[in-house]
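Follow-up to my post from last week.
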Amino acid sequence: MTGDLLLDMRDVSVTFDGFRAINSLSLALRPGEMRAIVGPNGAGKTTMMDIITGKTRPDTGTVRFQGRDLTRLDEPAIARLGIGRKFQKPTVFEALSVTENLLLSLKGVRSPFAVLMARRSANERERIDRLLHLTRLEAMADQPAGGMSHGQKQWLEIGMLMGQEPDLLLVDEPVAGMTDAETMATADLLREINRTRSVVVVEHDMDFVRALGVGVTVLHEGSVLAEGTLDAVSADPRVIEVYLGR
Amino acid sequence: MNPFSTHAPRSLRGVIWMAVAVVVAAGGLAAASLLPEGNPLHASAFVVSLAGKYLSYAMLALAVDLVWGFAGILTLGHAAFFALGGYAMGMYLMREIGARGVYGNASLPDFMIFLSWKSLPWYWWGSEHFVWAAVLVVAVPGLLAGVFGWLAFRSRVSGVYLSIITQALTYALMLAFFQNGLGFGGNNGLTDFKDILGADLHAPLTRAVLLLVTGLLLAASLLAARFVVGSRFGNLLVAVRDAESRTRFLGYRPEQAKLLVWVFSGMIAGLGGALYVTQVGIINPGEFAPANSIESVIWVAVGGRGTLCGAVLGAILVNLGKTLFTAWLPEFWLYGLGVLFIGTTLFLPNGLMGLWRHVRKAPPEEVTPEVADTQGEEA
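User reply:
Got it. Predicted complex:
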């Protein structure tokens, strides 16, 4: 029925202590698409990410990824299916080097015994070199990740996402706390990534969303308020009302 | 100093040096104990059994460091695994006494006759065989660690809550082992051992060999632990320690990683307990006392958490201090231990290994911060 959709959320609702964080939300994403999700604080953007990645279980509704039901799976299982998530606050493993961070992220062995016996293969070295190049962290390869700047940690985390080789990337406020130059570089990086993978970006920064040049979904009070190009949704009176207040 | 450089302490070279030092020291002391009494280098039986005790404790410390230093699981009950290993070995040593006990019964230990038991309980099956005892020494602590860890980690119990239930675990075992009816000698425990593998436990040669074997097994455990933390799995443990939920989104199951290292650690502790019993000559429920587990955490903190070598060093030095201190000022030892722990926490957060690294390197300036500052602002 929905065979050619990559991600298909239908009528999803979730309530926390009587507060309806997500209210019959439906969202569909085609393979290869990049989508920006915008909306005021509390619109349910992060909760939506939590539902897709298995952190939160919806009360009602279905979430399908490549036709598979995600609502029964936990975070590691969903991650292994090919959904990668980048958090708002960059979370890298600070005590490990950049290379070790990337190595842990590489798609491949995950069971503890296999990880214990794993040796770095030539193929893995090659993949890590490519990721170091992509994220411009070659010079830092053997440095502990904890010593890097905020922007570099953001990039390392994006590199780790790429290492997972996911089909779908969820990216939560990637440019929060970045300089203008870093913001534009990040937009370029995401467009580059989008050549091979589908991406959902949650972001407040409108300049950044404009630089991405992709379809926009506006969330408000847990459901979709408007969908379309950035210009179209910006002109929508309901969106203007939500953003500028009544 | 960069607070994030946790790489250096688990350097392979350091661990090999420590393993060699342990074997050389144990072997040297063992050889010295075999010299004739008049020789100035002669080591007394007391010194040999003391050294054996320290090295056994070092294995417990190593086990604690594996889970606390690398996986962030602050265990306050690891002496339980140590004591279980000790009891497994003690059962065999009890059976070796044979008909030489007070009641002269060839198959039943004295305390069972005292309880007027007619036959061995089922779990004493095979206890007359050393090989079976050697299996139980690691299998029983490993099994308990497996069941306990599976339940705790699966339910995502962590932090202080996990520390508290580890403490409850060892306390519950202590109470259970105090019961005569459990079949492990009640509050007297297992003691009055005579032989191991037919060799007299009180003979200098047997004691020398036991010390050397303890040194070798400690060295082997140290190398095995280094293999684990030096592998990709070791990186995964550190990742779980520092950002557990993040590892889930990479597709790892942190509870499995914790379970694996927890069981491995429990086995090392059990092995240490078994070696302890052969040299100290007694195992009783007091070994399950919560204070023992807490002391083992202090040894690791003093030596340097997450360094492996530091755990061994800390266990040996603190226990050496304890021996000397309790000889001079017996009633003040606990205060001394408390001061040591608080002092370490406040002034030596990375323990003696941290101090050693600091003194040896004494870097004028770290390179990392400068490189980092060239791009973007700090968060």
